[in-house]
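Q: I have 86 residues here and want to know how they pack in 3D. Can you give me a structure?
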Amino acid sequence: MIDRQAVIKRLRRVEGQIKGIQKMVEDEKFCGDILIQVSAARAALNSVGGLILENYMHICLSEYLEGQSEEEDLNKLVELMVKYTK
């Protein structure tokens, strides 16, 4: 099961990064520095998404393998993974 508090903590950290980027833009900081921070925020958000996807995959696949879900549920998982990785 996913550690909700850890995910929330990471999301708050990303929120802080975004606010920092906004301030950098307002203060007309060097574009290169802003881009580095955008990249860091994107990586942090991708990390959170990866944790959530990993948790969902464990639950979904476990249920499928135990016969508690249908092939339609597995197809939803595959569709979600394709959308997430774009």
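Q: Anything worth noting?
A: Helices lie at 4-26, 31-65, 71-84. The chain has a mean pLDDT of 90.
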